[in-house]
TrEMBL record, chain A:
Keywords: Iron. Residues 7-79 form the Ferrous iron transporter FeoA-like domain. Pfam families: FeoA. The keyword Nuclease does not apply. It comes from Bacillus yapensis. This is Ferrous iron transport protein A. SUPFAM superfamilies: C-terminal domain of transcriptional repressors (SSF50037). InterPro entries: Fe-transptr_FeoA-like, FeoA, FeoA_core_dom, Transcriptional_repressor_C. It comes from the Bacteria.
UniProtKB/TrEMBL annotation, chain B:
Pfam families: FeoB_C (PF07664), Gate (PF07670). PANTHER family: FERROUS IRON TRANSPORT PROTEIN B. Residues 242-290 form the Ferrous iron transport protein B C-terminal domain. GO terms for cellular component: plasma membrane. The keyword Membrane applies. GO terms for molecular function: ferrous iron transmembrane transporter activity. It comes from the Bacteria. Keywords: Membrane, Transmembrane, Transmembrane helix. Residues 130-220, 301-425 form the Nucleoside transporter/FeoB GTPase Gate domain. The keyword Cell membrane does not apply. This is Ferrous iron transporter B. The chain crosses the membrane at residues 60-83, 126-151, 172-192, 212-229, 236-260, 312-335, 347-373, 428-448.
Length: 83, 457, 234
C-alpha cells in the first residue's frame, strides 16, 4: 500500500521519501532548484541534518544537495511511505 | 526586425510557467534515457559515503574532527618543514661564503657585493628556505583532503554559523583556498552566487593567513612562544599557537561579516545550495606531485620575483645616506613613534609597508633592516635570529603583535588587484584595504596597552 | 592552421573536466572534489594522429540558462565562439542530473560528443551504462572514460578525429516540449531564422527568448556592435 500526505522537505525525517508537488520560491533560487532536479514529480530522500541542525542534505536526481531551512520549508510534497 | 523586437514578441506570448515546464520536461527525458540506457547489477548500494558522512558531519564529532584536521595539517607542515628549512638555510649560507670569495677574487666593488649578495641573494634565499619546505608539505596534504571531498563537508557543518552572521556557508570553501593564496581565493569566491554574500567573502578572505604569511607566523611562534620546548613537542606548541592565530582570524571573519551585514551590506541571507559529492579516493601520486611541485614552484617563483627587487631596494635604502643617517633609518625614525604605540617599532612598520607587493618578503626586509644597523653580519641559525630580535628590544608581546598584525593587515598587492577585478569597484577595493588595516592597528594596540597595564612587559 | 581544432569541455561541476583536461594536455589545472573550483577558462593542446586540438576547460555549471556568470561564460563560448566539438563530460554515477545538461547542449550546437566519465566509480557501484543505446537516443557519439585512470582515451580521441574529419555526423536529438510551448516556438522560429540564418540554432534561440533570457539578448547586441565596429574598421 502507498499512503501519502503533504509535508515540506524541512519537516521530513531522515530516510523519508517525498514526491515534490510545489515549490513556493521565485527568482534565481527557484531556477537553481529546478536545475538541481527539485522539479515537481521528482522524488527526494531526506539524508541528514548538519551538526547544528541546519542545513539539511537531500538526495535528488542521484546527487546529494544541502538546503537551508528557509528554502526547504517552501518545497512541499507527498510523503511516500513504503509499508 | 531586430533581436530586441523579437524578444518583446516572444515575451508577449510567453508565460511565467515556461521555465518550469522546460526543466521538468528535460528531467523527465533524462529519466527516460536512464531507464533505457542504464541498468543496475548489484542490489546493495554503496554506503561508504553515507558511513563517512555519519562521522564527518556528526553532531558530536563533526566540529572536533574539523579542528583536528586543521591541527594535523599544520602540525605536519611545521614539524616536517623544520629540518629541510634549516638544511636549506645552511646550504645557502655555505654557498654564500664561496660567492663572497669569488667577489673578492674578482676585486668587485663593495657596493656590488652589497646589492647582489647581501641584498638580492640573502633576501631571496631566505624566502626559499623559509617558504619552500612548508609549502611543499602543505599543498599536497591539503590537495589530498580537497580531492577526497572533505571541503564541502566543512561548508555543510559551518553553514549555520555563517548564516548567523549573514554570510554564505560556501565562504568556508573560499577561506580554505585562502590558506594557499588569498589572491586566488578572491577569484574562487565566484562560487557564491549572490552578490552580497560574495562581497562578504571577498572582503574578509584576508583574515585567513596565506602561505606567504606562515613563514613569519611559524618562525615567530617557534622562537618566542615555543622557545622553552624541544624536539617534537616544540612543533606541537608551535602548531598550537598557529591554530590559535588561525582560529582568531576565523572569529574576526565572523565578526566583520556580521558587522558588515548589519551596516554596509545589509540584507537577508539569500539562497544557498551546496552539493555534497561522494568521497573519492584521489590518485595519490598524481595529486601530490601536481600540487607540491607545480604549485609550490609557481608560488615560489612569484615570491622570489618580488623578493629580489624588494631586497635590493632595502639594501640601497640602508646604504644611501642623507646627512649622517641612511634613508632607511630616516623612515624608521619617522614610523617608530607610531609603531611603539602598537608594541612594535619603526623597522617592523617599514617592513610591512615595503612588503605590500607580497607578504613573503616582510620578514626578510625586517631582518635586513635590523642587520644594517647592528654588528651582526650573518644569520646562521634561528638562535642568531632570535638574538637579533632581542637586541632590538623584542619581547613575547612584540612577537605576538607582529603575528597579529600579519594576520589582520591589508591584503597583498596581487590580492588587491584581484579584488578590484572581481568587484569592479574602487570603493570596495578601498574598503578591502581599510577594514583590515584598522583592525591590524586596533588589536595590537589593545594587546600592548593591556600588557603594559598589567605589567607583563 | 588547417589541422587545428577547438574542443570545449562542458558539464556539471565536479564531473572530472579538469582531470580530463590535465590528462589530455599534460597541464596542471586545479582539481578537487567540490563544485566550483575552476574559475577561469584554461587552454591547452593535445596532438592526435595528424591533428592538433586546442582544449578549453569551461567552468562547470548545473545548467546553461544564464542564472550565473559561470553559466553565461560557458554558454557564450559554446554558442558564439563555436568550438569545433563540444565535449559534454558527464558523471556516470549521477546520469539523471547530468543528462539534463547534455540535452541542453544538444539544443545549442551540432557537433557534440557525450563523454561519460567516472566509469570506474560506476562499475564499483554496479551501474551498467549501455552507450550504444544512448548514442542512438541522443544522436551524437557517446564514449565511456575514466579520466583519472586514463581509460577510454583512444576511443575518445578517435571519435573526435572522426567527427572533425566528417567521417561521422551528429544529429543531436531535440527535446520535445508540451504542445503549447511547441506552438510558441513555431510562431517565432522562422522570424529568428531570417534574422540569424544558420549561424545559431533558431529553435534554441526561440526557447531562450520565450524564457526571457535578457543576458543572452544583451550578449547578442554586444557582439553585433563589436562586429559592426570590426567591419567598419576593415
Ligand atoms: N574515481 C575517479 N575519480 C575521478 C575521475 N575523474 C575525476 N575524478 C575525481 O573527481 C573530482 C573532480 O574532478 P575535477 O577534474 O576537479 O572536476 P571538474 O569540476 O569537472 O573540473 C576530483 O576529486 C577527481 O580526482 C575518474 O575517472 N575516476
Ligand atoms: Mg574543473
Amino acid at each position: 500500500m502507498v499512503k501519502s500526505n503533504k509535508i515540506s522537505l524541512f519537516q521530513g525525517k531522515k530516510g523519508n521519501l517525498i514526491k515534490i508537488s510545489s515549490i513556493s520560491l521565485e527568482g534565481v533560487m527557484r531556477r537553481r532548484l529546478l536545475d538541481l532536479g527539485f522539479v515537481p514529480g521528482a522524488i527526494v530522500e531526506v539524508i541528514k541534518k548538519s551538526p547544528l541542525g541546519d542545513p539539511i542534505a537531500f538526495r535528488v536526481s542521484q546527487t546529494t544537495i544541502a538546503l537551508r531551512k528557509e528554502e526547504s520549508m517552501k518545497i512541499e510534497g507527498e510523503l511516500v511511505n513504503h509499508d | 526586425m531586430n533581436m530586441k523586437e523579437l524578444y518583446s514578441e516572444a515575451q508577449a506570448i510567453s508565460s511565467p510557467q515556461l521555465r518550469d515546464d522546460i526543466v521538468q520536461q528535460l528531467y523527465s527525458r533524462s529519466r527516460e534515457l536512464c531507464d533505457v540506457g542504464v541498468s543496475y547489477t548489484k542490489t546493495k548500494a554503496d554506503t561508504r559515503t553515507e558511513k563517512l558522512d555519519a562521522i564527518f558531519t556528526s553532531k558530536i564529532w563533526g566540529f572536533p574532527i574539523m579542528l583536528t584536521m586543521l591541527g594535523v595539517v599544520f602540525y605536519l607542515t611545521i614539524a616536517g618543514a623544520n629540518i629541510p628549512s634549516s638544511m636549506l638555510a645552511e646550504f645557502f649560507g655555505w654557498l654564500e661564503n664561496y660567492i663572497t670569495s669569488a667577489f673578492q677574487f674578482l676585486h668587485a666593488p663593495d657596493w656590488l657585493h652589497g646589492i647582489l649578495v647581501l641584498g638580492l641573494y640573502r633576501g631571496s634565499t631566505w624566502v626559499i628556505s623559509v617558504m619552500l619546505p612548508p609549502m611543499a608539505i602543505f599543498f599536497p596534504t591539503f590537495a589530498l583532503l580537497e580531492n577526497y571531498g572533505y571541503l564541502p563537508r566543512v561548508a555543510f557543518n559551518m553553514d549555520r554559523l555563517f548564516k548567523f552572521v549573514g554570510a554564505h556557508g560556501k565562504q568556508s570553501l573560499t577561506m580554505a583556498m585562502g590558506f594557499g593564496c588569498n589572491a586566488a581565493a578572491v577569484m574562487s569566491s565566484r562560487i557564491i552566487e549572490s552578490p552580497r554574500e560574495r562581497m562578504l567573502a571577498i572582503l574578509t578572505n584576508n583574515f585567513v593567513p596565506c602561505n606567504g604569511r606562515w613563514g613569519t607566523l611559524i618562525v615567530l611562534a617557534s622562537l618566542f612562544m615555543a622557545a622553552s620546548f624541544t624536539g617534537g613537542f616544540k612543533s606541537l606548541v608551535t602548531t598550537g599557537v598557529i591554530v590559535g592565530i588561525v582560529l582568531f582570524g576565523i572569529v574576526v571573519t565572523f565578526f566583520v561579516s556580521w558587522a558588515l551585514s548589519k551596516t554596509l551590506l545589509k540584507g537577508v541571507p539569500t539562497h544557498y545550495t551546496l552539493e555534497l559529492p561522494p568521497y573519492r579516493r584521489p590518485k595519490f601520486f598524481d595529486t601530490v606531485i601536481r600540487s607540491s611541485l607545480t604549485k609550490s614552484w609557481t608560488v615560489l617563483v612569484r615570491a622570489v620575483k618580488v623578493a629580489a627587487p624588494a631586497a635590493i631596494l632595502t639594501w640601497v635604502f640602508a646604504n644611501i645616506h642623507i646627512g649622517d643617517t641612511s634613508i632607511l633609518l630616516h623612515a624608521v625614525g619617522f614610523l617608530d613613534p607610531f609603531g611603539k604605540m602598537l608594541g612594535l617599532d619603526g623597522y617592523i612598520m617599514l617592513a610591512f609597508i615595503l612588503g605590500l607587493p607580497a607578504n613573503e618578503i616582510v620578514l626578510p626586509i625586517l631582518l635586513m633592516g635590523y642587520l644594517s644597523t647592528g654588528s651582526l653580519t650573518e644569520v646562521d641559525s634561528l638562535v642568531d635570529l632570535k638574538q637579533i630580535f632581542l637586541d632590538h628590544g623584542w619581547t613575547w608581546v612584540t612577537a605576538l603583535n607582529v603575528m597579529l598584525f600579519s594576520l589582520l593587515h591589508y591584503p597583498c598587492g596581487t590580492t588587491l588587484v584581484n579584488i578590484y577585478k572581481e568587484t569592479k569597484s574602487k570603493k570596495w577595493t578601498f574598503l578591502a584595504f581599510l577594514i583590515p588595516t584598522v583592525l591590524a592597528i586596533l588589536v595590537p594596540f589593545i594587546v600592548y596597552q593591556t600588557a603594559k597595564l598589567f605589567g607583563w612587559v | 592552421m588547417i589541422n587545428s581544432y577547438r574542443i570545449a569541455l562542458a558539464g556539471n561541476p565536479n564531473t572530472g573536466k579538469s582531470t580530463l583536461f590535465n590528462a589530455l594536455t599534460g597541464l596542471r589545472q586545479h582539481t578537487g572534489n567540490w563544485a566550483g573550483k575552476t574559475v577561469s577558462l584554461a587552454e591547452g593542446t593535445v596532438k592526435h594522429k595528424d591533428k592538433t586540438y586546442q582544449i578549453i576547460d569551461l567552468p562547470g555549471t548545473y545548467s546553461l540558462f544564464s542564472n550565473s556568470v559561470d553559466e553565461e561564460v560557458a554558454r557564450n563560448y559554446i554558442v558564439f565562439e563555436k568550438p569545433d566539438v563540444t565535449l559534454v563530460v558527464l558523471d556516470a554515477t549521477s546520469l539523471e542530473r547530468n543528462l539534463n545538461l547534455a540535452l541542453q547542449v544538444l539544443e545549442m550546437t551540432r557537433n557534440v560528443i557525450v563523454c561519460i566519465n567516472l566509469i570506474d566509480e560506476a562499475e564499483k557501484k554496479g551501474i551498467n551504462i549501455n552507450e550504444r543505446i544512448l548514442t542512438r537516443k541522443l544522436g551524437v557519439p557517446v564514449v565511456k572514460i575514466s579520466a583519472r585512470n586514463k581509460i577510454g582515451f583512444p576511443m575518445l580521441l578517435d571519435t573526435i578525429d572522426r567527427l572533425v574529419s566528417g567521417t561521422i555526423e551528429c544529429n543531436p536529438v531535440q527535446t520535445t516540449y508540451s504542445e503549447e510551448i511547441e506552438e510558441k516556438i513555431t510562431t517565432i522560429e522562422s522570424k529568428i531564422r531570417s534574422l540569424v540564418g544558420n549561424s545559431i540554432s533558431s529553435r534554441w534561440l526561440a526557447l531562450r527568448l520565450l524564457d526571457g533570457d535578457e543576458a543572452l539578448l544583451n550578449e547578442f547586441n554586444r557582439r553585433l556592435v563589436l562586429n559592426d565596429q570590426v567591419r567598419r574598421e576593415a
